[in-house]
């Protein structure tokens, strides 16, 4: 996500840091590079202009220039202003005091409405709500099937009846919510390739028949400033309350995330970061700003770690690192814990400095991790505890059992031994540096 922008910004700040003391002109020159980076990321040019004039005013201040680490000061100012630019605070989905809460999802075709409807239903369900979904995108027959399949997957009822118009379906959704005692009605609406009058009229009629508590515009983050134009057009006709930015896991450049709030005044409430039903998160401007600057999303990582990791297990295993007892059982257990945080490539993205270390991302290959796990799973308990007993015939058996090759088994054993040696040396303080982990 935003890799290109992050790389450019990091290069600029690195240059500034290497200068040590900075003059006002140095800062201005650095900010010029920031301007190019933002424009290249397809951020609206008026937004860029205003943003930079605010940043510059603060960043050339004497207290920044005179500080011990002026470049850090500039980064902090940029981060704070980026946060404000994206809305500053987390904006929650508002729930009606008198249920059911009615939430419409609107947007162009392919933006991710249907997927987001199901993701949001799942999120609300996890928060203890009782959602119901309405399949009102009747013009794209696959959309109804898609929503019904997703509904089954997450165990949320879907309202649809052939022959009913979208307006009637919305009303039917409300009726059903009363009958089934559901407290949220999520309406997946029809999209078109472009903003068009017929579509808008239909959406307006639906809102008249069943007024909304939230009307969320779903936009594809990869479309950059087009997303901003779409948002402005929808906002003219509909009572939009927020935006869902989808496909942030793809190669979105950043333009939409950084411009939409400022240009349209609409808060980004949620972001989609994958095709699966659980890939939806509240939009957190401060974390996003840190991530854009390559400062990593350590907070998200820590939160995930707190939720999913077994601390006792990790502590127990960690004690053995660097001792002769560290074996494949420990490694397997730790790998299992790390995997709970999500695909390794994603975890790495959240770590500070990783934007610049993209080349290492290729070193962790999630399939590679699966193969390593398969190899370890094919070992007997004895072999895991005492890897030294794994001779030629055992290697062949392990390779066959795990669907890998003897070469791969050999490589893992060699890397594991190297890692063990290095860890021992590191523990004894003889050598610094990270051993290559046997993950690929
Ligand atoms: P709709 O026409 O607006 O209802 O769009 P869909 O929900 O059918 O989504 C269009 C495509 O985008 C589908 O292939 C989805 O799987 C995909 N998609 C939706 N949201 C995301 C996301 O956050 N990340 C990724 N990678 N794909 C997404």
UniProtKB/TrEMBL annotation:
Keywords: Cytoplasm, GTP-binding, Hydrolase, Nucleotide-binding, Ribonucleoprotein, RNA-binding, Signal recognition particle
EC number from the UniProt entry: 3.6.5.4
Domain SRP54-type proteins GTP-binding span(s) in chain numbering: 267-280
Domain of life (superkingdom): Bacteria
Binding residues for GTP: 107-114, 188-192, 246-249
Compartments (UniProt record): Cytoplasm
Keyword Isomerase: no
UniProt xrefs under SUPFAM superfamilies: P-loop containing nucleoside triphosphate hydrolases (SSF52540), Signal peptide-binding domain (SSF47446)
Region (Disordered): 426-440
Top EC class, one word: hydrolase
InterPro entries, A to Z: AAA+_ATPase, P-loop_NTPase, Signal_recog_part_SRP54_M_sf, Signal_recog_particl_SRP54_hlx, Signal_recog_particle_SRP54_M, SRP, SRP54, SRP54_GTPase_dom
Subunit structure: Part of the signal recognition particle protein translocation system, which is composed of SRP and FtsY.
Entry text on domains: Composed of three domains: the N-terminal N domain, which is responsible for interactions with the ribosome, the central G domain, which binds GTP, and the C-terminal M domain, which binds the RNA and the signal sequence of the RNC.
HAMAP family linked to this entry: SRP54
Family: Belongs to the GTP-binding SRP family. SRP54 subfamily.
Known function: Involved in targeting and insertion of nascent membrane proteins into the cytoplasmic membrane. Binds to the hydrophobic signal sequence of the ribosome-nascent chain (RNC) as it emerges from the ribosomes. The SRP-RNC complex is then targeted to the cytoplasmic membrane where it interacts with the SRP receptor FtsY.
Protein name: Signal recognition particle protein
Species annotation: Sulfobacillus thermotolerans
């Amino acid at each position: 996500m935003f890799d290109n922008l992050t790389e450019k910004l990091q290069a600029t700040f690195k240059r500034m840091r290497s200068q040590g003391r900075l003059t006002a002109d140095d800062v201005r020159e650095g900010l010029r590079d920031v301007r190019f980076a933002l424009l290249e990321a397809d951020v609206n040019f008026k937004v860029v202009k205003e943003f930079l004039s605010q940043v510059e005013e603060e960043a050339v201040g004497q207290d920044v220039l005179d500080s011990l680490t002026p470049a850090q000061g500039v980064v902090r100012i940029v981060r704070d202003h980026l946060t404000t630019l994206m809305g500053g605070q987390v904006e929650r989905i508002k729930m009606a005091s008198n249920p059911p809460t009615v939430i419409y999802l609107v947007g162009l075709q392919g933006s991710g409405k249907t997927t987001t409807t199901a993701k949001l239903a799942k999120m609300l369900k996890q928060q203890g709500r009782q959602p119901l979904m309405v399949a009102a995108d009747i013009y794209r027959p696959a959309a109804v099937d898609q929503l019904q399949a997703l509904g089954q997957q997450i165990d949320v009822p879907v309202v649809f009846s052939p022959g009913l118009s979208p307006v009637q379906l919305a009303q039917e959704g409300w009726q059903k919510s009363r009958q089934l005692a559901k407290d949220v009605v999520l309406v997946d609406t029809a999209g078109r390739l472009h903003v068009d009058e017929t579509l808008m009229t239909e959406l307006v009629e639906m809102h008249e028949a069943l007024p909304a508590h939230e009307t969320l515009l779903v936009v594809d983050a990869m479309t950059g400033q087009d997303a901003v134009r779409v948002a402005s057009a929808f906002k003219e006709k509909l009572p939009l309350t927020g935006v869902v930015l989808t496909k942030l896991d793809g190669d979105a450049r950043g333009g939409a995330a950084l411009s939409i709030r400022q240009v349209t005044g609409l808060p980004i409430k949620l972001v989609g970061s994958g095709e699966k039903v659980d890939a939806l998160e509240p939009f957190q401007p401060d974390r996003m700003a840190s991530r854009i600057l390559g400062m990593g999303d350590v907070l998200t990582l820590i939160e995930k770690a707190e939720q999913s990791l077994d601390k006792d297990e990790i502590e127990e295993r960690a004690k053995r690192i660097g001792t002769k007892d560290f074996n494949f059982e420990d490694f397997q257990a730790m790998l299992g814990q790390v995997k709970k945080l999500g695909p390794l490539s994603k975890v790495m993205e959240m770590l500070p400095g990783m934007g610049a270390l993209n080349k290492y991302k290729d070193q962790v290959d999630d399939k590679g991790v699966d193969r390593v796990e398969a190899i370890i799973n094919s070992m007997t308990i004895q072999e895991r505890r005492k890897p030294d007993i794994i001779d030629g015939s055992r290697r062949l058996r392990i390779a066959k059992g795990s669907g890998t090759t003897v070469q791969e088994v050999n490589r893992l054993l060699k890397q594991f031994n190297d890692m063990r040696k290095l860890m021992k040396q590191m523990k004894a303080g003889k050598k610094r540096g990270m051993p290559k982990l046997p993950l690929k």
